[in-house]
Amino acid sequence: MPLEEVSSSEVRFSEEIVVPATEGGAMASTPLGGGQSPESLRMDRGGGSILEIPPEISRGMDEINIVIQSAPFPVLKPLERPQNITLESLWLAISTLQTSLMTISEGFKITQDSIFNVKKIMVGQTERITYIEGKIKKVEEVQNSIIKGEVIMNRRMETFENELRNTNIRIINFPKCKLISAKEQFKSYLKDIMKMSNEDMPVINKAYFVSVLKTNTENQMETEEVRLNITEFLETSQQYQVEGRGTLLVKFMSSMDRDIVMKKFLQHRTELYLDQKMWMYPDVSKETQRKRKKFLSLLPQARSHGAQIILRFPCKCVMRVEGQRYVFYDPDQLGNFIQTHHWTLDTGQN
Q1: In this structure, how many other beta carbons lie within 10 angstroms of the beta carbon of residue 195?
Q2: What's the predicted TM-score (pTM) here?
Q3: Which of 63, 67, 182, 197 fits as disulfide partner to 207, beta carbons 3.0 to 4.6 Å?
Q4: What is each CA distance from 227 to 111, 128, 191, in whole angstroms?
Q5: Which domains does the chain possess?
Q6: Sign, CA torsion 321/325/329/332
Q7: For 168-217, how does the pLDDT look when each residue is reduced to its tens digit (9 = 90+)?
Q8: What is the maximum span of the chain, computed from C-alpha positions, in angstroms?
Q9: Which class for 59: exposed (0-12), middle (13-18), buried (19 or more C-beta within 10 A)?
Q10: How far is CA 347 from CA 81, 127, 337, in A?
């Protein structure tokens, strides 16, 4: 059959693909995609979408998915060699190949557009990630500033509390005597042990024992016991009746009086008062007491490496190592320094 006799109706590029038939040399025509959508064909095969997009991807991804799913990928039947090969069959084969190439070219174009859209989305996601990272960095900076502010505030509160306690002293193992107030008992101690006269006696604001609060029942029992022992106490000698010992807190009117009493105590620290030894310390906050205790436990370790270290009142540790001066206000800092830089503390090492 001449080529010019081939009607255009036999070759429809956009609607169907014509392939040679096996029986009688007839040509079989199959509509593009078999009359089904590409998505339904893919689902019949047991597969999903061409490109699966995660649900967390934001805008634009649904549109890309729709474009990709609607790509015209035809389903072709396998070709078999016809019994009679004619020019018409060759023309139909060439036209079928051209249609397939056009379809593939269109699919590639759609794929390129999809990749381009995905790239734009990736750029947008990258910008969002960069924005979130910047926010996280700002949050970290705020948290660090809050932590630093809290540390500074705690240190100021500790300093303020120590200033309020600046005129106080604590006496460990001080005797509790019956029918004598703690203030009068402490004055007696100053006269008997420190040999202070009434003219040299410091002005005492308060003096009381630091102890756990007792219940009303316990206080009533102690009152009854005191009432029962008044006669016995008056009939006995003038010696003190010690019923126990505890921590005595004394508050002076000025820090100068406190310093005078502390110096007197150091001069008579080996003497016994009512048959027992006592110790006197400046009064500081609980946090300062904790830090001083830990500092004192680290001093021997630092000195063993050849460091010159002292603990100043109330809680300032000064250390000299190989001509360098270090100041620590927190014992954890000193501990980390010793563990990290202990090689610089060893005598004879560089």
Answers
A1: 11
A2: 0.53
A3: 182
A4: 103, 81, 29
A5: 3-128 (no CATH), 168-282 (3.30.70.330), 286-345 (3.30.250.20)
A6: negative
A7: 999 999 998 888 889 999 999 999 998 898 888 999 999 999 875 454 54
A8: 152
A9: exposed
A10: 98, 56, 16
